[in-house]
Design brief:
426 residues; alpha+beta; Cytochrome Bc1 Complex, Chain A, domain 1; 2 domains; 7-stranded mixed sheet; 5-stranded mixed sheet; 14 strands; 43% helix
């Protein structure tokens, strides 16, 4: 399946992922804005309010009834950060028209519903419903405060915060509790109007659909678009490499009532954010710590028993590598030393041809499995689009196969430890 990207205008993109593999069609919308401390909390709150009702379906109960009438269709909205972007995300899924009992056009209904959810939310007195906003503020407050409950995720967030500093990527995707006090139904609606005016909008249609019907729907909705739709084949880079102003390793110790230490190491990687670097770094990351055959898993966890869990993660949109480990409190020094040895071995090329082969098989299986899930397909695509990577899954797998030992050693020697964060006991 080769994705087709249609540019309606400078801010609206249609992504057609035509496939007859699934019995359902997924419609997803991403409203992309720049990550910013002034708006991050409002932007996180907006999808929760949009999910509550539209002008036609004014309550969640009304929406639920409508979804049931559409053969159990699904609808949800959320927020995430993708590189330097904060995304307001809406998803709807309904069975393909060919499986309906009476020939209903569920694709048209789903598209119309999604359009209403975005452009015709439920309003009172010309602004968001105050009851909905206040209720979702409290839900968001709980979500923000709950980040400390999962100590592994919390340690990762804190290391990210310490590493990126003033870079917008340091922001928590749900924002800050203090901001909630200033948010009202009125100023939240004003912010949403700004988003509708300025944000890049990406609409994904994944399933067995007719291209002409999709084009016709959007042409009717956006009257000012050009008659000729522009095809996008090679998107420009949409994110940038972070410049981390850390000259010496930043040591951060945080004490809490924990029974297991959480170690997170952040490595700046001196590569550009090109497709070539992505493929090399993905292979490097897989051998180092992203699979059960990785050096971290085998040597730190299995053989030395110095970690309950350990893995590495590469942020392709920011050019930063994280190594995480959950360790016994009295094994910090040994675990840290052995982790550093694995990273150093990668620089020296101390990994086998079998390691490279296993990593390529792992990635092939991983990316082939993505083909079986429409939501994951869509999320991979929007991430790649923001990165500027224009490739199908099969093309990505072929590119992984071309990565050599020399390529892996090359990027391994471009890694630099910048932050050592350890969450330990009081």
């Amino acid at each position: 399946m080769k994705e087709q990207v249609i540019k309606l205008n400078e801010k609206i993109f249609i992504h057609l992922m035509k496939t007859d593999k699934f019995k359902s069609n997924v419609i997803a919308a991403f409203l992309l804005t720049d990550l910013d401390s002034e708006t991050v909390t409002k932007n996180a709150l907006i999808p929760a309010v949009l999910r509550r009702g539209t002008a036609k379906l004014q309550t969640m109960k009304d929406i639920s009834i409508k979804m049931d009438e559409m053969y159990g269709a699904l609808f949800d909205a959320s927020t995430d950060k993708i590189g330097d972007k904060q995304a307001i995300q809406l998803y709807a899924s309904a069975i393909n028209n060919k499986f309906t009992l009476n020939g209903e056009d569920l694709l048209a209904e789903t598209l119309e519903f999604m359009f209403d959810a975005i452009y015709n939310p439920y309003l009172e007195n010309g602004i968001f419903c105050e009851e909905y906003v206040n209720g979702e503020k409290e839900t968001l407050r709980e979500l923000i405060n709950s980040k400390i409950n999962n100590k592994g995720s919390y340690a990762m967030f804190r290391c990210t915060e310490e590493t990126f500093g003033d870079d917008p990527y340091a922001l928590f995707k749900y924002g800050n509790e203090a901001d909630l006090e200033e948010i009202t139904a009125s100023n939240l609606y004003d912010q949403y109007q700004t988003i509708l005016h300025k944000a890049e909008k990406h609409f994904y249609i994944c399933g067995d659909v007719e291209e002409e019907k999709i084009k016709e729907f959007f042409e009717n909705k956006y009257e000012k678009i050009p008659t000729t739709l522009e095809m996008i084949h090679e998107p420009e880079y949409r994110t940038k490499k972070s410049e981390l102003n850390i000259t010496e390793v930043k040591e951060v110790r945080e004490k809490m009532d924990v029974t297991q230490g959480k170690l997170v190491l952040a490595y700046d990687v001196d590569v550009d954010l090109s497709a070539e670097s992505f493929y090399k770094m993905t292979l490097y990351n897989t051998i180092l710590g992203a699979s059960s055959n990785s050096k971290l898993f085998q040597n730190v966890r299995e053989k030395a028993s110095l970690a309950y869990t350990t893995r590495s993660t590469y942020l392709k949109h920011k050019g930063v590598l994280f190594v995480t480990a959950g360790i016994e409190l009295d094994k910090y020094e040994k675990a840290l030393e052995l982790i550093k040895i694995q990273v150093d071995d990668m620089r020296k090329g101390n990994f086998s041809d079998e390691d490279i082969k296993d990593a390529k098989v792992f990635l092939k299986n991983l990316f082939n499995s993505i083909k079986d899930d429409q939501i994951t397909l869509v999320e991979l695509s929007i991430g790649n689009f923001i990165l500027g990577l224009d490739a199908s899954i099969d093309e990505m797998i072929a590119s992984f196969e071309k990565v050599t030992r020399e390529d892996i050693v090359e990027v391994a020697n471009k890694t630099r430890l910048v932050t050592n964060y350890y969450l330990c006991a009081e």
